[in-house]
């Protein structure tokens, strides 16, 4: 098994971890009702996914 010969410095460790930040979710608008929703998921307000209704919603 490979083992590092030298200790990795704090600067190099922090540079590597600089890309580990969590990004905020990017909601998109639903094509049916226009409400914001997460991509690739059923719209919570109208129940549509990919131009067809998959969850029955009461009005």
TrEMBL record:
Please tell me one Gene Ontology term that the record gives under cellular component: large ribosomal subunit
Q: Which InterPro entries match?
A: Ribosomal_bL32, Ribosomal_bL32_bact, Ribosomal_zn-bd
What are the coiled-coil residue ranges? Answer: none
Q: Name one GO molecular function term.
A: structural constituent of ribosome
Q: Which UniProt keywords apply?
A: Ribonucleoprotein, Ribosomal protein
Entry's Gene3D superfamilies? Single helix bin
Spell out the protein name for this chain: Large ribosomal subunit protein bL32
Species source reads Dethiosulfatarculus sandiegensis
């Amino acid at each position: 098994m490979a083992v590092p010969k030298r200790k990795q410095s704090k600067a190099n460790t922090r540079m590597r971890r600089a890309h580990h930040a969590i990004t905020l979710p990017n909601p998109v608008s639903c094509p049916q009702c226009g409400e914001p929703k997460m991509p690739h998921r059923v719209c919570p307000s109208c129940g549509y996914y990919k131009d067809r209704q998959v969850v029955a919603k009461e009005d």
